[in-house]
Amino acid sequence: MKKVVSCLVVMVGVFLCGCSSYRFQGHVAKGACALEPCAMKYRIGPFVLRVDRKGFFDGTIEGDMWAIPQAAQEFSEVRIRRDVVKLNPNLFTCSGKGIPLAVTIRVYGEPKDGAISGLPYFMTLGVCPLRIGETTPCEITVSIVGARDISQSCPLQFRSDAKLSAILPLGLVQFDAVPGASSCRRGNGFMTAPQLDFKCQAAWESVFVETLADGIVVCVQEIEKRTPPDVLTRLASVP
Fold it and tell me: Which residues pair with 151 in a beta bridge?
C-alpha cells in the first residue's frame, strides 16, 4: 500500500507542477575507465533482465517510472547490441568474428535509499520542490557462450533524482554532476519524466546503456585475466 501511495504522489506531483529537474547516474564497481584495453573482440549474444524486486502493480519494475533498468524493457536485444557496439567499437562487434557473450542484469529486491520528500512541497503549496530519489542495486553477469564455467559478475547500481515544483521555478535548478560515475545525465524543463518527455527519456536510456557497456568491459577484463589466450583465440573462431 505504501508503494501505491508513493507512486500516486509522484504522478500527482508531475502533473500539478510545471518546473522540474532530474539526474540519472550509473555506477560500476572498478569502472572500465581505469582498466587496460581488452585483448580480444566480443559480440553481444543473449541479453536477459531478471527482476527480483516487485513493482507497484504487476510484479515487474514497470510500475516505477524512475527505475533506470526499466529502460531495458523498452529496448529490443538488437538495439541493446547496436548501442553497446557504438559505445566501444574497438572491443565489441556486430559481426560473427567476435567471442560470443551472454549478458544478464539482475535487479535486486527493494530500492536502497528510496525516498519521496513531499511534506515541504505540500506545506508550501508547491513553492519548495517535491524531491524524489531512488538507488536501484543490480548485478551484471557476463558469460562466454559455449564455454563451460567461463563467466564473471560484478555489482552495479543506478540512481535517479528529481525535483518538482509549482508557483516558483525552484524545480528548474540543476543537480550537480557526479564525478567518477560510469554514466551521468542531467536536465530540466516543464513536466519532465522518462515517460513524459523525449529528452528526459533519452537521458534515462543513455545512462542504462552506458552503465551496461561499462559493466560488460569490467567483466570481460576479469575473464581475460584468468583465461589462457589460446582458449580465447579458439572461442573467437566459434560461429
Answer: 143
Q: What is the mean pLDDT of the chain?
A: 79
Widest CA span of the chain, in angstroms?
67
Distances (CA, A) of 206 to 70, 179, 212: 12, 17, 10
Segment 58-65 shows an average pLDDT of 54
What whole-number distance in Å separates Cα of residue 184 and Cα of residue 37? 23
Count the neighbouring beta carbons within 10 Å of the beta carbon of residue 225: 9
Grid coordinates given for 228: 589462457
**Model's pTM, two decimal places?**
0.81
8 Å CB contact between 185 and 26? no
- How far lies 190's CA from each of 24, 64, 169, in Å? 17, 20, 10
Residue 177 carries which side chain, given as an amino acid letter? A
Q: Where are the alpha helices (DSSP H) in the chain?
A: 2-16, 77-87, 119-123, 198-226, 229-236
pLDDT tens per residue, range 154-187: 999 999 998 887 777 777 788 888 888 999 999 9
**Cell 537521458, located at residue:** 203
Contacts of 143 by beta carbon, 8 Å cutoff, 6+ apart = 101, 102, 104, 150, 151
Under DSSP, is residue 101 helix (H, G, I), strand (E, B) or coil?
A: strand
Report the residue count for the chain: 239
Q: Give the pLDDT of residue 55.
A: 52
Write down the pLDDT at residue 230.
Answer: 84
